[in-house]
Write a structure and sequence with these properties.
5-stranded antiparallel sheet; alpha/beta; 25% strand
Length: 443
Amino acid sequence: MRRFDVLVIGTGVSGQTAAADCAAAGLDTAVVDRLPYGGTCAQRGCEPKKVLLGSIEAVDAVRRLAGRGPVGEVRIDWPELQAFRRTYTDPVPARTEAWMADAGITPLHGTARFLTPERLAIDGEEVDADAVVVAAGARPAPLGIEGEELVATSERFLGLPELPARIVFLGGGYISFELAHIAAAAGAAVTIAHRGSEPLKGFDPGLVALLVDGYRSGGIDVMLDAPVTAVRRRDGALVVEAGGRELPCDLAVHGAGRVPDLATLDLTAGGVAFGRRGVEVGEDLRSTTNPRVFACGDAASRGLPLTPVGIRQGAAIARTIAGAPAPAWDDAVTPSVVFSAPPLASVGLGEEAAFAAGLDVEVLSHDTTGWFTSTRLGVPRSGAKVVLERESRRILGAHLLGDAAEEVVNVFAVAIAAGATADLLKALPLAYPTSGSDLVYLL
């Protein structure tokens, strides 16, 4: 039997952080993954998506500004774009394993599962550890529909060697809205089918409505109140049944949410309570039923499923394991972004949440479509909403749709964390004309 002070299951950003910090604290640390090292973000999610978006945004900008200077046709060479993406993703597994080994972490490969609350096995070899960190990430949620096996994952979409002519995205979450923009700008006919009336849950409904309107005006068919009931193969193509319609397509892509990837761990044998949101953990990210087990990132019941959250959680767990004080987990001030066209960003309290909490707030709403920062780039729809505490004018939340929203939201995050007021931000001499200088007018 192999024995370690710490065993980390998963090599995404949260697992990497926990393992590196534990090893740096002098603990005998191992990591194990049944997939290539590096996790979802670097190989199958955030980063490859953003690599594709670099070229997509350039082409999209030229098209938006047609008649305002740019001339000639511009298009995406999909195989060439994919070759560029692979220059980023292909080196990830070897590079990740190499730096972890250099950091004093023992790299293991295989499927880990609990045998008892104290012991695990990795492909049959028994392993014991004083502390186990579950950082196993997430996987596409089961759809529970006929023909589910015909639906491609977002990972498959990101690696397509050729782009199909017709694509239907199942679900109205951030994955669908981000990948739909990529596919449409690259030349595909695109449909999003969402089961409810409000896509992109968690973001401001008014700004989401602006984004949906912009997508529709740009040729993307966004279907609401259109639950997908089946996917069938017919005449060499696929047919997605949604909202009473049949949608012929060449590819159907899962964009209906993700769930913690815990099925292979046999957490029940380990005495580890878990639910739909992941391993049940307390404020210290420790399992509520097995004190030697921790969980972070997408595998934990606390925290938003975001890369920065996973990193911070991994670091907090390492401090706890090493015996250093760690604050109770709190992700109230964590920006979230949909890399749509244009980007949609949010941080802090939304309007509905503020009123539900009984707070006395002032909500500053703006349709910024005609503002300089939108018109100079031909952005079809943009807007913003800022939530202030009425008496103090302290900033409680910010919600943005428009150019550079993914950057401006970080300024609001700092302001909220620091307890800054609208008057303080308005008084700052911000560089002009920039998207950041719009802060003065938003407040």
